[in-house]
Sequence to fold (632 residues):
Amino acid sequence: MRAWDVLTFTITVLSRQRFRALMLLLAIGVGVCSVIALTALGEGARGYVLEQFSFLGTDTLVILPGRQETTGGMPPLTGAATRDITLADAEAIRDFVPGVRRVAPIVLGAAEIRYQSRARETIVMGTTADFLRIRQLQRATGSNLPDADFDQAQPFAVVGGKVQRELFGGRSAVGHWLRIGNRRFRVIGVLSGRGDSFGLDLSDAVLVPVASAQQLFNRHGMFRVLVGVHPGRNRQAAQRQIEQLMQSRHQGERDVTIVSPDAILAGFSQIMGSLTVLVASIAAISLLVAGIMTMNIMLISVRSRTEEIGLLMALGASPGQVRMLFLIEAGSMAAAGACAGVVAGFILVAVGRALYPEVPFQVPVRVVLAGVGTAVMTALFFAWIPARQAAALPPVTALLKGH
Amino acid sequence: MIELREVTRRFEVGDETVFGLHEISLTVPQGEYVSVSGPSGSGKSTLLNVLGLLDRPDAGEYLLAGEATRRLGEERRAALRRQHVGFVFQAYHLIPRMTARENIELPMVLGGMAPAERRRRSDLALERLGLSERATHLPRQLSGGQRQRVAIGRAIVLEPALLLADEPTGNLDSEASAEVTALLESLNANGITLLVVTHDPDTARRAHRRLRMLDGRIVQDQAGPARES
Fold:
């Protein structure tokens, strides 16, 4: 038979059993759709987290006060510190650890900021010029914090884009004086972009020199210290030396935690592995269900068309042709269902993108191909038995039914 | 055209063995017009099925157009069937979802013939059957006689040498019956070997050679013009 004839024959058969065909279409479509949607979710989550970590790069270390023995997983957000990390500690790391290129100590707090009659409660981060460099943050206008000594409490501030919008009403904030708590700061720069990290939205924050933040919040210890290592230098060695330095400065206590992006990403890839297994098992279950449905539907189709099968054989169809016709019937239903599933899956992904623009949902082409391919192969596999039954029908008994 | 050598076909019915065909030997030359009659269960239909390669004998040998068929694979038997044999059934066996033309084209579709050639042949067949205006009708929109003519068109469209008809007029009134019989006989006149199974004595008498079956054996084999008895 010609391919086109097989197709038209199959279409007329399917159009006679629309309900059955539709149900199978639905079962396979839901399976393929769920694979695509879950994969997009997984890829989106992976992309989101990688993006969050990308600022750290592979040559960045984060030092937190307190000792955590757990490795992997998310970094502890609060440390039960026995001893603060001081500005002097950060200076020592910058000056004495070989390979260290940048050091950005961070003091974090919330304060009311005021410009003329407008006031707003925001995050105020005390840090150094290196913070913007380590985080690879861009400025819309103005300049970075000055490269001064850590302990110089200069009255300069770099504000986020949202702060500029809300307080200055769209006009440039650079050069204006801003009141934070009970101190006055001059705005010298404005950040561009969102600068999101771990739920901290830097566009809605104000950066000031670290010593100024210490005075504002009357806080001595650092929230954390970001350390940038020279590219090409051994980061592990730097990590060990920082540990030793901190230990010697803290009277032999090992009371800081140093986190590297590697450790965090290792923990994360474990989570991603579990998610992949979950996606695979959901796909397997739905395809198994669809497969069993395929077998049932095809068995019914063979039963109800016994007479036709006998006739086809009397007209010269070989058993192989009859088997092929039934396999193609199942395969084309599966293919149509799978395509509908792909379309539905991509609609879900589009909805997801619209709702959560910051998560990079995406569907790899290989997943689409694998989903469709597996659906069709499963249908053919489960249709094999009914198709073989049809082909093995003796033409005589098949025709007798009509009498 | 047809040669049966001591062909036996047994059926197991409960514990009993029933002979559909019992050591039948029969030779039918090309172009003959044969009728097969006999009571129900005498083996007429079994004979027809064996001759049409729809059923396989348990013993003996069946030669169709000179080729021994008993031990052939199903694929080859299907090809022989398509090449040499046309079937006409009492219940027409048209596919209800297909038009008259599509039903006639079905054997050519199964044989993989090009659409243009199919179209040419089905046009010819429809015209010959006087059904040109009914080409796009579905079987349920046709009368019994028209349906049987479509079925005959389907049987002969590949120009087989052997036409097997199982009670072709069994479901028809006398007028349609006469029409269909005339059509079959005109095909025979053009050279096709025609074998009609019937239990209607009048139909049986029209054939040039008349077989009578009983209990799986051929008990009577008359040739020549039938005499009024």
Notes: The mean pLDDT of chain A is 84. Chain A is about 55% helix and 20% strand. The interface with chain B takes residues 1-2, 4-5, 9, 12-13, 15-16, 307-308, 310-321, 394-396, 399, 402-403 of chain A (CB under 8 Å). Residues 93 and 242 of chain A are 7 Å apart (CA to CA).
